[in-house]
């Protein structure tokens, strides 16, 4: 068990880093901006769409496309929670204070969840409000909060983003540097965007089974997989990454 004192110490270190204090509100602000941008562009497309295209129109999926950018910022937040200590040379002092590496990793994972979850909730909800209100203002089809698909987005979307913050945390432990960990997480999360130019044997992997895509597609209602499979792929991947981080952290000098 990790004590509240360890979590308070982790929060003190986290809140003293300017980059993290800027990145958290910036993620929410970017989410709102992307919701408006995609909502505005989609409303324009709807205005000139044919009758069949309007029947096939998916306002929630189209308006929330900015999540594929916001996920990168949330993952970077997880990276900073650990990489800032490696960069600042304070990891040894943290280990000396906590005593056990597993407890320190668990404390940082707990802090990641407590930090990323509210940021993710604010980001997803603001993106939904801005995108759907922009669609409505443009005369396009939109979705209201009481609809099941919207509830799934508002409740499950933040959990998916928080899991990706834990993915970023694990990369911070594995790569021990902000720049390499952020670069790797960004490349990994955005690689599926290039599925259309990938070889045929990779299309299915990138478009359906890639962990973050599998979960985000379930959240948006566009997945060919059942919900348990989409969420399970991401959960299993993040658990494996955290396990690798635990082993690496335990077997290498701080």
Give an account of the 3D structure.
With 254 residues, this protein is an all-alpha fold. It has one domain (4-251). 81% of the residues lie in helices and 0% in strands. The chain has 12 helices and no strands. It has helices spanning 4-15, 18-47, 51-55, 59-63, 67-88, 91-98, 101-137, 148-175, 178-190, 200-209, 211-220, 227-251. The protein is elongated and about 65 Å long. The model has no long low-confidence stretch (mean pLDDT 89). This is ABC transporter permease. It comes from Nonomuraea diastatica. Keywords: Membrane, Transmembrane, Transmembrane helix. The chain crosses the membrane at residues 21-39, 66-84, 105-129, 149-175, 187-206, 226-249.
What topology emerges from the helices and strands here?
Layout: H1 4-15, H2 18-47, H3 51-55, H4 59-63, H5 67-88, H6 91-98, H7 101-137, H8 148-175, H9 178-190, H10 200-209, H11 211-220, H12 227-251
């Amino acid at each position: 068990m990790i004590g509240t004192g360890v979590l308070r110490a982790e929060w003190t270190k986290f809140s003293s880093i300017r980059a993290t204090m800027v990145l958290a509100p910036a993620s929410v602000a970017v989410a709102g901006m992307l919701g408006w941008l995609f909502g505005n562009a989609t409303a324009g497309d709807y205005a000139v769409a044919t009758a069949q295209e309007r029947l096939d129109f998916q306002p929630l999926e189209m308006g929330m496309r900015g999540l594929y950018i916001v996920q990168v910022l949330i993952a970077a937040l997880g990276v900073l929670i650990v990489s800032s200590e490696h960069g600042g040379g304070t990891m040894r002092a943290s280990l000396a204070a906590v005593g056990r590496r597993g407890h320190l990793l668990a404390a940082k994972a707990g802090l990641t969840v407590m930090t990323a979850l509210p940021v993710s909730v604010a980001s997803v909800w603001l993106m939904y409000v801005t995108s759907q209100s922009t669609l409505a203002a443009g005369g396009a089809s939109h979705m209201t909060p009481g609809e099941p698909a919207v509830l799934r987005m508002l409740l499950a979307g933040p959990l998916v983003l928080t899991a990706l913050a834990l993915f970023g945390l694990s990369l911070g432990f594995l790569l021990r540097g902000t720049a390499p960990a952020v670069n790797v997480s960004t490349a990994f999360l955005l690689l599926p965007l290039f599925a259309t130019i990938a070889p045929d044997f990779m299309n299915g992997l990138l478009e359906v089974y890639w962990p973050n895509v599998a979960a985000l597609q379930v959240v948006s209602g566009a997945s060919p997989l059942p919900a348990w499979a989409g969420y399970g792929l991401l959960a299993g991947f993040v658990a494996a990454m955290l396990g690798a981080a635990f082993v690496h952290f335990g077997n290498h000098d701080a």
